[in-house]
Amino acid sequence: MTTPLLSLQGLTKAYPGVVANDQVSFDIGEGEVHALLGENGAGKSTLVKMIYGLVKPDSGTMLLRGQPFAPPEPRAARADGIAMVFQHFSLFDALNVAENIALGMENPPPMGDLAARIREVSETYGLPLDPYRTVGDLSAGERQRVEIIRCLLQDPKLLIMDEPTSVLTPQEVDILFETLNKLRAEGTSILYISHKLEEIRTLCDHATILRLGKNVGECVPSETSARDMAEMMVGSTLQTPERSGRDFGEVALDVSGLSVPSPSEFGTALRNVHMTVRKGEVLGIGGVAGNGQDELLGVLSGEIPTAADAIKFNGQPIGKLGPTARRKLGVLTAPEERLGHAAAPDMSLTENALLTGSVREGLENNGFLKWAETKSFAEKIISAFDVRTPGPENAARSLSGGNLQKFVIGREVLQNPDVLVVNQPTWGVDAAAAASIRQAILDLAAKGTAVICISQDLDELMEISDSFAALNEGRLSAPRETTGLTVDEIGLMMGGAHGMEVAHV
Amino acid sequence: MIVLEKRPQPSKAWSYATPLVAVVATMVFGGLLFALLGKNPVEAIGTIFWEPLFGEFAFYYRPQLLVKGAPLVLIAIGLSLGFRAGIWNIGAEGQYIMGAIFGAGAGLAFYPLEAFYIFPIMVIAGAFGGWLWAMIPAFLKVRFGTNEILVSLMLVYVAEQMLASVSLGLLKNPEGFGFPGSRNLQSYDSAHNAELIAGSGMHWGVVTALIAVIFAYVLLNRHMLGFHIRLTGEAPRAAKFAGVNPARLILFCLGLSGMLAGLAGMFEVSGPAGQVSIDFNVGYGFTAIIVAFLGRLHPVGILLAGFLMALTYIGGEIAQSQLGLPAAAIQVFQGMLLFFLLAFDLLTNFRIRAARSEVA
Lengths: 505, 360
What we know:
Number of helices of chain A: 16
CATH topology of the largest domain in chain A: Rossmann fold
Helix content of chain A: 25-40%
Largest interface: A-B, 41 and 24 residues
Oligomer: heterodimer
Mean pLDDT of chain B: 90
Number of domains of chain A: 2
CATH class of chain B: Mainly Alpha
Number of helices of chain B: 14
CATH architecture of the largest domain in chain A: 3-Layer(aba) Sandwich
Number of strands of chain A: 23
Strand content of chain B: under 5%
Structural class of chain A: alpha/beta
Strand content of chain A: 15-25%
Shape of chain B: globular
Low-confidence stretches of chain B: none
Distance between the termini of chain B: 13 Å
Radius of gyration of chain A: 24 Å
Largest sheet of chain B: 2 strands, antiparallel
Strand order of the largest sheet of chain B: 1-2
CATH superfamily of the largest domain in chain A: P-loop containing nucleotide triphosphate hydrolases
Order of helices and strands of chain B: EHHHHHHHHHHHHHHE
């Protein structure tokens, strides 16, 4: 066998209190698309940070084409042909594409030459991109292209991609995969991090599965079922959420002709949104991030006031009511951003339970707080939703993302809402916790709650929702029944590839 | 290399220890400063901290502690509520002046009538004056989104001009031989904020300051409004999500801090100062900002910090007169206190760790 491009041998990295990587070894061959699979917290990020020179391993060695490789910093890793596309983009909204790319270069060429190079690379790899467009106007998929082209300009030998499809529509995913296949054909190796198993099955040649920092197995994805891979990842049998009968009651929430400007400069205005949700129904709202999801949640929670008649709850106009009044009526929401929006990071879980629970749980008396009751409400959430924490007096920021998410969702679910709106309920949550959150949402719907679930995870929406609509540039498509929807139809509802075709060379 | 590592949650122990550590560090480095000035550091520090409390003339200085500490605590309590919510009232000095003008003006309007209701009316008028002055930045912020820091600060200078104007005009003592300044309220019984126990320094302002401490404590720890104030300061978006109306909170916080500053001014002008004069204000409104932070925006902390600050003022004056320390050195000393407090405060949320060289 030939020497692999990159060989990891016994990489170990420990942080105080947790071993992020424990004796991880695997090889990435030349021209191979290698998947790195694992739940959140399995140690994927730490591992790629070591390869990219952001973190130094405690022990273990890396060999690049047989030569010892220990990049002290990302610049050194880049010099050796390693490039990385991060999950969160580091782009400046106010600058154009070429300027953003120039910022990341050691010795940027003159802007004209650079723009020509960007055009050339983008055409070669089927990633259409105008170097002079302002990044603030680009869709998430296009922003990702900026990051990918930034990497390709360095002519990398190994391209690391961290959860690249989480922000893409199905059509955009197809374009990306074509690009990656083209790169593979040219001999570039790709380390592909994801937890989306179907993608890995179609794209990757080889997969390494991490669990709790350890390499727990390798497989050839095309020959392994998604379920088997998932169970290797989680280490136990997965429980698929079940739903009981689907009889819906009357319309609980009726949104009609809702148009709202975005409160933030780079936000998306909502344009003429119509939807109705019946009691017991789960309406899934898909769409790529930044198409008005935050604004929709804000309008439904009462943070953004709107015309009274635009939102009706059981026939009563509530568009002008604030969050507290809506909670009193039974309209509850859980925003996407856990730290700073759904919860105050430095406050205790007890205080965070009070944050939305005060009205419905009777945690105040003429403005005076009932701390004992609040604490037991927090404890109730912690035990009912299996939130891992020493106790309710701990600060919200001390919880892991998944645990805090369970707390935030649990806080609303336990208040017996009549309408529940959740935005990205399982974002960054491990598979087992995600399953329990979805189950809780379904149980709530079974009891007659009307649920709106805004999510970018299409699998999740297909799993739990009765009807599906997509947000695209602030417009909501007409909701359709989920059963029988194909991925292509969903993709078209989501706005296709944002009007872009694969460039044919 | 030393790195700071964020603690998973704030350390309780350090949040109590930092003020003490800061005081000790101030003593050490202040002592060093005094030594460089050619004074005996032990003697200087002793004069500042010991003399006012237990020295030969402590019977005179101790009441002064209450007199100087009370307005600082009263103003700082009001400011701390706003600061907690991220609403920065920097103009307490102006609100303090307006409280004094309104309070004294209300009292002098009744002169020479003697009646039990005059003093309560003055209290209300003083509170109203401070509230009114704080409502200007509050209203402008809510309505037009102006910066309350700038507006409230600028209004201090407007208030100083008003003070000069009324001292020379409207409130000038008609029997004052043309000297600027109002009648002395100390010699107008119904309007005099006299000591409640002779020689103790305890006047109505001290009582009000103590009530304000208790009020703020209950508000912050037991009341929804206090919870919303803390929530707004720590996570503004979460506060909006919880249903806090930011405009109402701004009006409340600025209004209350203005009111308390106005009360402090009123109690000062009708008691220790006695009259409205051009140089009536001595910077309590600005020093209270330091007191609020020194007390870590906690009501009980502010109570302690107010008296610590009063101690350094009085001790500083003694050191100036007895040891010939320059006034600037005393100010540096007071500045060090705030500096060290803010510096050590870091340890509440971060721990210091010696790190191997690693690019993280």
